[in-house]
Amino acid sequence: MALHKLADDPDGGRPDYVAHGDFTNMMYFCPDIRYNYLNKGVKDEYIERTDEELDTLLKEYLISLSIVANNWVDMEVVKDYWLVITPVICDNLTGTKSPLERDNFIVTPYYSDDIELVRRLYKDNDFYQNGFGTSILREDRRKRRGSEAVIGFYLACEVKLDSEYFEALKSLDENSVEYQKAYQDNFLVHCLDMGSSVTKFMDMPIRSFIQYRKNKYGLQFVEQYFDSKIAKKTSRWPLGEGYIRNMLNDVNKDKNYKYVAFEDLFASTGVDFCTYALSKEDLRDFSKSFEENSWYPRPEFDNEDEQAKRILAKDFIF
What we know:
The chain is α+β, with helices and mostly antiparallel strands. Helix content is about 30%, strand content about 15%.
């Protein structure tokens, strides 16, 4: 699978994940839903969300991201997008037998009915909380992961370069140094605008992975949260924890490596992203395969649902 390829460090350090496939011009939105949260004002006291509360959050993200992605295509912000349900969910179904023993993905064009598809898949798991992260850190620091977030599903977007948002690139030679610098600067701003518009529309935080520069093996992705409720913006963007915020604020640069998805197999916050991020080739192949052979039934989406009607009535601004 994509990003499962390992490369040894020639200097004798830890091995790295390598981007295996075409990941150019991509941005990934991975909702970070936790099944528990810290009780405000009470140290080490965590409150568990009910299954109903988790389903409401899940549905809020699914409907909102569907609306956002559909608008982005109309606005030529993105060229294409996909909904991906990961093996975290697809490998642990109880009511339906998955095609493979492991590494089962479902990729769709993100039809409205796919909102109900994801909710049904979550409920069809042997343990409903499988698809959600936790806010509790392991007591043994040696066993802590870079992130306790869980990627049960995500939205993959291919940015459209042939659009008004990248006018500055059209007069430059694609093979020139000037083009590469202008591309990276424009692409980063575009992705930050995308993330900002998502969190403002939902009024909830969103976790993302942004293609940013290259390492010695090729493209790298960095983790960046967006949060509309953040007290202080970074430049003009509502950035939460992440690589870009530290870079723009010129802080914690010595620790910023942990937000680089391919940097460290053990400490990186993007280990789960490296495991489940799909390249454009894989996204198209999986999507075509599921359309031709939908091995899991697709329930209909209820537009008359009160939560859906509330979200659908909101205006989206980019």
